[in-house]
């Protein structure tokens, strides 16, 4: 087949390639926008973690429940937006870069406040960076052992993070993939422009 021969549907090759090229360009622009929004979201969340004053003198389980509820609500909104998105895979990446940092920073802030409120809750005094480091080692299951929870409330908090980590990695990931698959199926069935 020559470059000037029409495609099987009779469209000249250049005309058939133009819509594909346009779709690739739209996807590329969408990926750039998502990457910039992800970077902005992570920057805002990390900046807020390091700049907001965490001065509460009393931390209780209600704070953790409220925080986890907020993360769950954000996640639910993200799932809804994936289902409606023209680019569900990109939207899922964006959902992860919103929800996971929020979840991890919430635990880091809680560890920081507990150590500030009850010194000695951990094997060493925690700065915000130390609390974030500890949160990430618990999340990644690395567990270097350089920082450990010493008091019962701190250990209970670490155990809740471990359980929620398993749920976040297992259940939440499955829900994300399911939302993406459903959106892609809807697009390929013709209810939305796959662009």
TrEMBL record:
Gene Ontology process terms (BP): monoatomic ion transmembrane transport
Alphabetized InterPro entries for the sequence: K_chnl_dom (IPR013099)
Region of interest (Disordered), ranges: 1-23
Biased composition (Low complexity): 1-19
Protein name: Potassium channel family protein
Membrane spanning residue stretches: 30-52, 64-83, 95-112, 156-177
Domain Potassium channel, residue spans: 102-179
Domain of life: Bacteria
Organism: Streptomyces racemochromogenes
Organismal lineage: Bacteria, Bacillati, Actinomycetota, Actinomycetes, Kitasatosporales
Keyword Acetylation: no
Keyword line: Ion channel, Ion transport, Membrane, Transmembrane, Transmembrane helix, Transport
């Amino acid at each position: 087949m020559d470059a000037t021969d029409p495609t099987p549907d009779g469209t000249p090759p250049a005309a058939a390639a133009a819509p594909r090229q346009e779709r690739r360009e739209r996807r590329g622009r969408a990926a750039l926008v998502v990457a910039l929004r992800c970077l902005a979201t992570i920057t805002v969340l990390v900046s807020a973690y390091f700049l907001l004053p965490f001065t509460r003198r009393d931390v209780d389980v209600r704070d953790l429940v409220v925080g986890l509820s907020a993360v769950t609500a954000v996640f639910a909104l993200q799932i809804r937006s994936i289902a409606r998105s023209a680019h569900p895979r990109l939207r899922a990446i964006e959902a992860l870069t919103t929800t996971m940092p929020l979840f991890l920073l919430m635990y880091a802030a809680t560890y920081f406040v507990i150590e500030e409120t009850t010194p000695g809750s951990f094997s060493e005094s925690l700065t915000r960076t130390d609390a974030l480091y500890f949160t990430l080692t618990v999340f990644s299951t690395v567990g270097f052992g350089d920082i450990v929870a010493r008091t019962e409330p701190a250990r209970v908090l670490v155990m809740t993070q471990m359980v929620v980590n398993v749920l976040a990695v297992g259940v939440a990931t499955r829900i994300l993939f399911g939302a993406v698959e459903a959106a892609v199926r809807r697009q390929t069935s013709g209810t939305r422009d796959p662009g």
